[in-house]
Amino acid sequence: MSIVSQGDKFLLHWLDLSRAHRILWLLEILELNYDVKVYLREETTWRAPAELASVHPSGKSPILEIFHADGSPPLKLAESGYIIQYLIQNYDIHKILTPSDPRDRERVNYYLHYSEGTLQNLLVSILVNNVARQLAPTGTKFVAKFVTNAINSAYYVQEWKLNMDNLEYALRKEGTGYFVGKHLTAADIILSFPIYENVFDNEEEVQKFSGRKINLSKTYPNLYAWSSMVRDDPLYIKIDEQMEDLVREKIAKEAARKRRR
Ligand SMILES: N[C@@H](CCC(=O)N[C@@H](CS)C(=O)NCC(=O)O)C(=O)O
């Protein structure tokens, strides 16, 4: 059994435009000592590069490695909800993100499951339909478009809207600007990807898949204000800037490697 300590080191396997960004935000908030390894998505399929599969059999991001200061065997964690829960349980020593009310802690746990169990699946399904349209061979694209639009509008987009309405209502009812209680919690951190990154910071794509013009800020004013809170958080700004630089570096390195081949 390892003894966790603030001296532990972390390596985050971070895929661009992925769920891993929120783990980075959490590592910053908890002031942990981390490094990031950057992976770029494949251009046409938008899948992770094969090298991620050598880190973890899922081949997905985020993966978080933890190297313990006491020399005990390192850990390799997968699944955003679990990673967030583990980090907060073991490293939130000042209780910055841990509500004092046990009922609030349970509500946070609900969102950790809800985000990956329900909300994110809808967005992934919409993304896969989008990729299907792009990958359809010439001459069949109109069929692919017709079928994927029909599936989206009969199921995924309806479900997504239902979830957006429910989340808007949850924030309005809470009345604090956060999903649970009066402060930032893991609920806000896990939802930053499916709500802020996938929707409010991705408006053009939302307009395309939703099939009609949605005025996001008017339809979902509480979610809009919450998304602005995420975007303007100084540590969120810091990780955005840091990753922009690292992604640029990685693109340049890969281009140089291709030229050498
Ligand atoms: N349920 C997992 C999902 C992980 C996942 O699907 N990650 C995506 C990035 S957002 C990925 O690595 N996709 C690349 C691929 O599927 O090839 C989690 O919450 O961490």
Automatic annotation (TrEMBL):
InterPro entries, per database record: Glutathione-S-Trfase_C_sf (IPR036282), Glutathione_S-Trfase (IPR040079), Glutathione_S-Trfase_N (IPR004045), GST_C (IPR004046), Thioredoxin-like_sf (IPR036249)
Domain of life: Eukaryota
Alphabetized SUPFAM superfamilies for the sequence: GST C-terminal domain-like, Thioredoxin-like
Residue ranges constituting the GST N-terminal domain according to the UniProt record: 7-95
Pfam families: GST_C_3 (PF14497), GST_N_2 (PF13409)
Stated family: Belongs to the GST superfamily.
Record protein name field: Glutathione S-transferase 1
